[in-house]
Specification:
The chain is of the alpha/beta class. The chain starts with 15 loop residues before the first helix and ends with a helix. A seven-stranded mixed sheet has the order 1-9-8-5-4-2-3, sandwiched between helices. The longest helix has 31 residues. Helix 4 links the parallel strand 2 and strand 3. Helices cover 38% and strands 15% of the residues. It binds pyridoxal-5'-phosphate.
Length: 369
């Protein structure tokens, strides 16, 4: 097989139609000059709320800010506990910790999402919320988590950073929680050309509170009601996101098509190598195509050095094992630790062609040969 270079992602905007559409959006903002809280932000908030079947959306600086401001909006504070997954980007745990609450880490299942049984074991009198992460772009078992929180009168929050327009039983990510948070950073499937995030809710009072928290806790130019920082999303990114929103269905179709090709080509490697098994009721958007591989580290070196295929490990360390969290909080993480040694994200993005997909598959089969 001839060596082909396969990058993990290609974030350049080289397609001339896409580039001119984005530049045109930038020019529109240059023309009206409302760089903060411009009309494009309002339009984006309305459209995203609609797509996710929610009443309100608040655009913010980043997915991290979305989580932090959302959790603060819910009133979390020192002495509270929030149960989250052991496997996510550290922003998830950091947002909890920075409200003053204590993150408590639940274990995960083979689908890499939080295990509701583990969650139930960790609930205490201090538990105020469950923060579920739709990992890799697949929605968690929200009907089970909803039952758990309703029985106990606690809150449910979605970290849907990886899962914009993913669905479970036909219901979109971002529509399940008391609040839901998205990231639109350049790596995400729905991506800005810079940092961006969004918070969704159906609760008007919460929406007003989060809007206040987004800008220094102010209700108008004169009055600050609560200390906060500046977490606003700029109009330029909102304008770019609106353009990207129009082409998003095509991007997701292509990612799902590539995943389908991998599923077929990589079946039959036995227990050495497992592709993400997706159930009928799940609509996965494949933020990453994450496989479970024996001899993962050797496979990664082989793919990168011998074959020119760039891969990523998301993530090599469960959050409770990070130096920031080790030792001061409760964690169930046996499966997470085991699965962290196997997870590998192989290239799967809309700019790949079918020859590259086949080349990746053939190279993996050659490794296990
Ligand atoms: C990307 C991501 C975040 C953080 O989003 P930023 O926009 O990078 O701040 C939070 N949680 C998860 C699961 C993510 O993938």
């Amino acid at each position: 097989m001839k060596k082909i270079k396969v990058p993990f992602l290609d974030l350049r905007v080289l397609d001339l139609k896409e580039r001119s559409s984005i530049l045109n959006a930038v020019e529109t903002v240059m023309n009206h000059g409302i760089f903060i809280n411009g009309p494009e932000l309002t339009q984006l908030e309305e459209e995203v709320a609609g797509i996710c079947s929610r009443k309100y959306a608040v655009g913010v600086n980043s997915g991290t800010d979305a989580l932090f401001l959302g959790l603060r909006g819910l009133g979390l504070q020192s002495g509270d506990e929030v149960i989250t997954t052991s496997l996510s980007w550290v922003a998830t745990a950091n947002a909890i910790a920075l409200t003053g609450a204590c993150p408590v880490f639940a274990d995960i299942k083979e689908d890499l999402n939080i295990d509701p049984k583990s969650v139930e074991k960790l609930i205490t009198r201090k538990t105020k919320a469950i923060l579920a992460v739709h990992y890799t772009g697949r929605v968690c078992k929200m009907e089970v988590l909803r039952k758990i929180v309703d029985q106990r009168g606690i809150m449910l929050v979605e970290d849907a950073a990886q899962a914009f327009t993913a669905k479970r039983n036909g219901q979109p990510a971002g529509s399940f929680g008391d609040i839901a948070c998205f990231s639109m950073n350049p790596m995400k499937v729905f991506a800005a050309c810079g940092e961006a995030g969004m918070i969704l809710t159906d609760d008007e009072a919460l929406y007003n509170k989060i809007t206040t928290l987004r800008y220094n806790g102010t209700v108008n130019r004169e009055t600050c009601v609560q200390p906060s920082l500046n977490g606003r999303l700029d109009t330029l990114q909102a304008a770019i996101l609106l353009r990207r929103l129009a082409s998003l269905p095509g991007v997701i179709d292509r990612r799902r098509d590539i995943a389908g090709q991998y599923d077929m080509q990589l079946s039959g490697l036995g227990s050495h190598f497992r592709t993400p098994l997706v159930n009928e009721n799940e609509y996965h958007v494949y933020y990453t195509y994450t496989v479970l591989a024996e001899k993962r580290d050797e496979l990664k070196v082989f793919l990168e050095e011998e074959k020119g295929i760039e891969c990523k490990i998301q993530y090599p360390v469960p959050m409770p094992n990070q130096p920031a969290y080790r030792g001061w909080t409760v964690a169930e993480k046996e499966n997470a630790e085991m699965l962290c040694r196997k997870v590998l994200c192989i290239p799967s993005h809309e700019k790949m062609n079918n020859d590259q997909v086949r080349y990746v598959s053939e190279s993996i089969k050659e490794f296990y040969g």
